[in-house]
Specification:
By secondary structure, the chain is mainly alpha-helical. Helices cover 72% and strands 0% of the residues. It starts with a helix and ends with a helix.
Length: 332
């Protein structure tokens, strides 16, 4: 199923349908190599994308890896070679170790709060409720906003003594405007903003996946005497497995690279209480002009993301990939 058709069908409330696959191919067609003309067409279409990938992905990684081995301020050519000292400094830095811990806390919160809430809301909005299309649109709307717009919005809402949220909380005897200035609460406040921004995406993914499951399966389980919870636990949830696994993958990778909203909301403060690896990298690279050290932090972020992605795809998502290849082979 294409993502655009899944999202549009989920918002409309209709069943998610896949585009018709190609018809059966003969053994001769399966083993046939691309003709010379087709090779030129493939090269013409692939070359621009390959060039952009090399320039915008591979080249920055190579440059950052090289710069991380030098003590460099970003001006001129790197000359003061320090080897792995920048990496040693990073893991000895309490702020960077705190970044790792805070990133882990945000990942755990995302997995145990954000995704289950999105799943529960998707199951609720899959029921025949009056005006459910409007509810789906309302819950999905925050995802359309950019990260900076979302951060600015919440900064204004919870601005001390001026924001609407702060004013309402004071009427109720609380002080919501202080959550971004308290080291004990700022990380959870940032998590709530991030969840508000992204849970609509996961809700739509779960909703589209739920609508692709035939109703007859749940109805058969209920007819056989299963309770609604048992039907969900043993029929619906396993069939939602591939979507849940890809949502976990996106959530973890996104949390490792979190920067925009944190920078606009808190700048990493107070006293580094909401700082992430990306924020620390920006501080050292563009505020203190320690580009070599910032490059080392960026490479650590890249390695963490790469290792997690490879491990997750090889271990957790292996069955999904094998199933996709099997289905693709059956369609040829």
């Amino acid at each position: 199923m294409t993502s655009s058709s899944a999202v549009s069908s989920a918002l409309r409330g209709g069943p998610a349908t896949d585009p018709p696959g190609p018809g059966p191919a003969t053994a001769r067609q399966r083993g046939r190599r691309p003709r010379p003309g087709r090779r030129g067409t493939l090269a013409a279409f692939l070359t621009p994308s390959l060039v952009l990938f090399l320039l915008l992905v591979v080249a920055p990684i190579v440059v950052a890896s090289y710069a991380s081995l030098y003590k460099w301020n970003g001006f001129g050519l790197p000359e003061n070679f320090v080897g792995l000292d920048n990496y040693t400094r990073a893991f000895a830095d309490p702020t960077f170790r705190g970044d790792l811990w805070r990133g882990l806390v945000l990942i755990v919160l995302s997995l145990v709060v954000q995704l289950p809430v999105a799943l529960g809301l998707a199951m609720l909005l899959n029921q025949p409720l009056k005006g459910r299309s409007v509810y789906r649109l309302i819950f999905f709307a925050p995802y359309v906003l950019s990260e900076v717009t979302t951060a600015v919005l919440f900064t204004l809402v919870f601005s001390p003594n001026r924001g609407l949220g702060d004013t309402i909380s004071r009427w109720l005897g609380a002080d919501a405007g202080a959550v971004f200035g308290d080291p004990d609460t700022v990380l959870f406040a940032v998590f709530l903003v991030v969840s508000w921004k992204y849970f609509g995406l996961y809700m739509i993914l779960f909703l589209a996946a739920r609508q692709s499951i035939p109703k007859e399966l749940s109805e058969a389980a209920l007819t056989d005497g299963a309770s609604p919870w048992q039907a969900f636990r043993h029929v619906t949830l396993p069939l939602l497995g591939p979507t849940i696994r890809i949502s976990v993958f996106l959530s973890v990778i996104g949390t490792i690279q979190l920067f925009d909203m944190v920078w606009v909301l808190t700048g990493g403060g107070p006293i580094h209480a909401s700082e992430t690896m990306a924020v620390t990298m920006y501080q050292y690279g563009f505020r203190r002009f320690e580009v070599g050290y910032a490059s080392a932090i960026s490479i650590v972020m890249f390695v963490l993301s790469l290792v997690f992605a490879l491990f997750y795809q090889r271990v957790v998502m292996r069955r999904d990939a094998e199933g996709a290849l099997t289905n693709q082979g059956d369609q040829r």
